[in-house]
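Quick log. Single chain, no ligands specified.
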Amino acid sequence: MPAQGKHRRTKSVSLSRGIAAVTTGGVVLALPVLGATTASATPAHSVAAEKAVAPVSVTAQVNSVTKAAPAKHSVVAGETLSKIAREYSVSGGWEKLYEGNRKAIGENPNLIHPGIKLTIGAKAAAPSDAKVGKAGKAAKAAAPSAGRAATAERANRSERTAAAPVAQAAPVAAAPATYSNDLDGWIKESLAIMAERGIPGSYEGIHRNIIRESSGNPNAINNWDSNAVKGTPSKGLLQVIDPTFQAYHVPGTSTDSYDPVANITAACNYAADRYGSIDNVFGAY
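-> predicted structure:
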């Protein structure tokens, strides 16, 4: 019996049901017995918590392989192919840069003129599996759908913050080439037309012959040699007579033999037919 004035804390008990056999008059009765047991305060464990281990948070570094739009570089005085290749970290050095721009540069890679537009390919980054740790792979295996979604989101965020200036949704059409209205521009425009028509020749070969024939004057005319005596004086930058100009005129250029580009392309077309290339001409032709 508890002492008066004192309060005893009741113990939490759980009742367990059992079966007690009681013999009454030879008859065995099976009676349920409620047994009291003291409950022990054991921590409750979630089955899900026991079976599943929270995956380690992993930030997967995803490098997207992108093809940068080719860069354009305008040559300035004092530059060389080696210097430009180093500046843009061109794989393969100046030789690779020259191979991709041979038409614009010509046959002599040591002679590049100010204003030439060079195309420089962008470097592509290769994906690296080493940057994805074991924990990241385990997380992806445990929850592939969530892993793919998280990876895609990180890739999109990376593209927006880092790769956006390089990667483009659609290719941008190249702007039409423009050429200066001077000897340098006339030669470059002629070379572009010659490349389309398969006419050989280099900047150096054309420039060398122009300086010898007309000193760079598109309106030059020879009124004293044998051609002039016959009534067909030599005209223009490369001193072409009218019959030759008409026979070797390149479609798409002016029919005026004094036009610088038309004069150059017709003369180079004639030189290719007779000498193999304007580069092989070192005197009167």
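Residues 46 and 52 are 10 Å apart (CA to CA).
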